[in-house]
Design brief:
Blueprint: H1 8-15, E1 17-22, E2 27-36, E3 41-48, E4 51-58, E5 60-62, E6 65-70, E7 77-80, E8 85-86
Antiparallel strand pairs: 1-2, 1-8, 2-3, 3-4, 5-6, 6-7
Length: 95
């Protein structure tokens, strides 16, 4: 049963926000699935070398906005929610 507050059109629009993270070997695509300011949580769909999986991160705030940490030690990066770019067309491929 779907939540009565669930709005599929907003959910699809939120998924279009994308961030590309370079881990030193390859680009990893992060798509925003959900952001919850009350619980300070962000859920990201990670595309890493052909594998897709959702991951939730704790949100932190500072003077520049909300952010979360992503990456493997020692290459952990602070990624702000405003760093995600709206993609209105699917990414066909990288040149």
């Amino acid at each position: 049963m779907k939540n009565k507050y669930y709005n599929e059109s907003i959910d699809k629009e939120l998924f279009k926000f994308e961030y590309e993270y370079f881990d030193g070997y390859d680009f990893i695509t992060l798509n925003m699935i959900d952001i919850d300011f009350i619980r300070s949580k962000i859920t990201i769909e990670v595309t890493n070398r052909g594998r897709l999986y959702p991951v939730s991160f704790q949100l932190f705030t500072d003077n520049n906005g909300c952010y979360f940490f992503y990456g493997n030690y020692p290459y952990v990066e602070k990624i702000y929610a405003t760093d995600f770019i709206y993609k209105d067309q699917p990414n066909v491929g990288r040149i």
